[in-house]
Amino acid sequence: MTVFALDALDLAALLCSRVCHDVISPVGAIVNGLEVLEEEKDAEMRAFAIELIKKSANTASARLQFCRLAFGAAGSAGASIDTGDAEKVARGLLGDEKTQIVWNAPRILMPKNKVKLILNLCLIAAAAIPRGGVIEVTLTDEGERAGLKVEARGANARLAHHVPALLVGEPEANGVDAHGIQAFYAGLVARACAMDLHVATADGSVCIEARPAANGSSAQEAA
């Protein structure tokens, strides 16, 4: 299998675009709230602006903390990351009144790329249940050969049609854009971990499992 190769500069630019897209909305809301504080004398409007600023600042912080672990260097080459930190940022970004996070993983140090893979699969799982539901993270084993599984359960759970191909590194003819870069990057991280990605879909659920690859890595889909 020939995996699509994306130029390093293009990869960096597309990931930066993705991160900027994630934070521009709450940052813009903070700016709007500050403008209201400058112009408004009404106490009720000022209270509303302060609440907007607080909420938006918390959202921006959660997104940046998540992106730091999911996309960033997070330490030197070969560094390990505490899975407790991954759980914290996942709950901070993805857990809300609509979405429950179930974390079936012990608090251990894992190679940073495996932790990045967990978080990137969590993003894909969250996108599969836009109306909310449950995102369940499970470590299927321990040690160097540890596998992992991320499952999304909710009403009309489904992956965007292009995601399985992006995970395996085979995008459509027009290549990879800012909308698809995160799924493509998840595939890159899986292959860096020498893991195969297996996608299974059923009524109301989407499951992506990463298993240690015997020879190289790939992604497979099962209906």
Tell me briefly what this model is:
This protein has one domain (8-222): Heat Shock Protein 90 (2-Layer Sandwich). Helices cover 48% and strands 20% of the residues. A hairpin with an 8-residue loop joins strand 4 (133-139) and strand 5 (148-153).
Please describe the structure with a list of short key phrases separated by commas or semicolons.
Heat Shock Protein 90, 223 residues, six-stranded mixed sheet, single chain, globular, alpha/beta, two-stranded antiparallel sheet
Structure description:
With 223 residues, this protein is of the alpha/beta class. It has one domain: Heat Shock Protein 90. The chain is 48% helix and 20% strand. It is built from 6 helices and 8 strands; from the N terminus they run ααβαββαββααβββ. The chain has a 6-stranded mixed β-sheet with strand order 2-4-5-7-6-8. It has a two-stranded antiparallel ribbon with strand order 1-3. A hairpin with a 2-residue loop joins strand 6 (195-202) and strand 7 (205-212). Helix 1 packs antiparallel against helix 2 (43-70), helix 3 packs parallel to helix 4 (112-128) and helix 4 packs antiparallel against helix 6 (181-192). It is globular.
